[in-house]
Specification:
Number of helices: 11
Radius of gyration: 22 Å
Distance between the termini: 22 Å
Order of helices and strands: EEEEEHEHEHEEEHHHHHHEHEH
Strand content: 15-25%
Structural class: alpha/beta
Length: about 325
């Protein structure tokens, strides 16, 4: 208590004598920083020890942006968060970094270590998202949680009550996206046909909408953007909000295939909780269709009691990255 690391939180139930004093970790005693480097955004969050976001810095990055530009933004943002919130050097436990091998940023761990003189740990972003959901937003923790992402790509992460599940391959976070769900489906970037990523990702949805609009099918998307070839995810979100029939139809088809793949993943991993996240996953049109596709296939498996939830926070990778830093001090 002298170091202000723990504080009195109240009194517990008595078992016959005086009520016991209850203590908890002081969430403001130290800080951690979580970084999420995805294909479209860089998110840097300052967190307390209860994984509450104190402040966040976010910027959209095109896939062609250089590693140097990403490194510069990370350094500048971390420096700003430290200065604006008066974080002493000894009060910053470290910087957690969630990344994807689709956007490698070589040397960023060493750069952050040298610049800020703290512990820096890089981990797969999908696994960190699973860890963040498990620790921060699922108080009734089961034994196993899987986190799935539907964004530009499709990924998955797995966490158990023992921690983040060790991975056997650097490609394994992307394995879910390259699960074949339609042998006669379109060609995927991996060279196979009918992969989940070729049918359910935002890129796949975008290509299908452009194809159908070119063929003359009406869509409110043509009112939202001057040239349909250049519509962005924000336009897709707005079309869903407006309940554009064509957009909803294409998204539901993509979500159906996502649900088929998710059913296969559930049979392999046997989770208690399934989170559907990423940029598109929590959208009600996508989420409800995907869950419906899964549950219809599980009617003959009553022994499997699974909770399905949309992701609780879009900054979940950064939250999980901060959590991983805290865990590293107790391992």
């Amino acid at each position: 208590m002298q170091a202000n690391l723990i504080q009195l939180s109240g009194y517990g139930l008595s078992s016959g004598g005086r009520k016991p004093l209850m203590y908890r970790i002081n969430p403001e005693a130290y800080s951690v920083i979580g970084v999420d480097i995805s294909l479209s955004y860089i998110t840097i969050a300052l967190l307390d020890l209860e994984l509450n976001i104190v402040d966040v810095s976010k910027k959209k990055f095109h896939s062609s942006e250089s590693a140097e530009a990403i490194q510069a933004f990370c350094v500048e943002s971390v420096q700003r968060l430290i200065l604006e919130h008066h974080i002493d050097q000894e009060k910053l436990l470290g910087i957690g970094l969630g990344s994807t091998n689709l956007r490698p940023v070589n040397g960023i761990v060493q750069l952050l270590e040298e610049r800020f003189k703290v512990r820096v740990i890089e981990k797969n972003g999908a696994d960190l998202a699973a860890l963040g959901e498990y620790r921060k937003f699922n108080p009734d923790r089961g034994e196993r949680l899987i986190y799935t992402m539907c964004s530009i790509g499709i990924r998955s992460g797995l966490v158990t009550n023992l921690g983040i599940e060790n991975r056997l391959s650097v490609l394994s976070d992307r394995a879910f996206g390259h699960m074949v769900v339609d042998v006669n489906g379109p060609r995927c970037s991996c060279g196979s046909y009918g992969c989940l990523e070729a049918l359910s990702s935002i890129q796949a949805i975008r290509h299908e909408l452009i194809r159908l609009i070119r063929l003359g099918q009406p869509s409110k998307l043509t009112e939202l953007v001057d040239n349909i070839e250049y519509f962005e995810f924000e336009h897709l979100q707005e079309a869903l909000t407006l309940e554009d029939p064509l957009t909803c139809q294409v998204v539901r088809t993509a979500a159906y295939y996502f649900g088929v793949g998710l059913f296969n993943l559930i049979l392999i991993t046997q989770p208690d909780t399934v989170i559907i996240g990423g940029a598109l996953g929590p959208n009600p049109v996508f989420f409800n269709t995907a869950v419906d596709a899964v549950t219809k296939r599980m009617t003959n498996m009553p022994e499997m009691n699974i909770q399905y939830k949309p992701a609780a926070n879009y900054n979940i990778v950064a939250i999980g990255a901060g959590c991983h830093i805290i865990d590293s001090f107790t391992e």
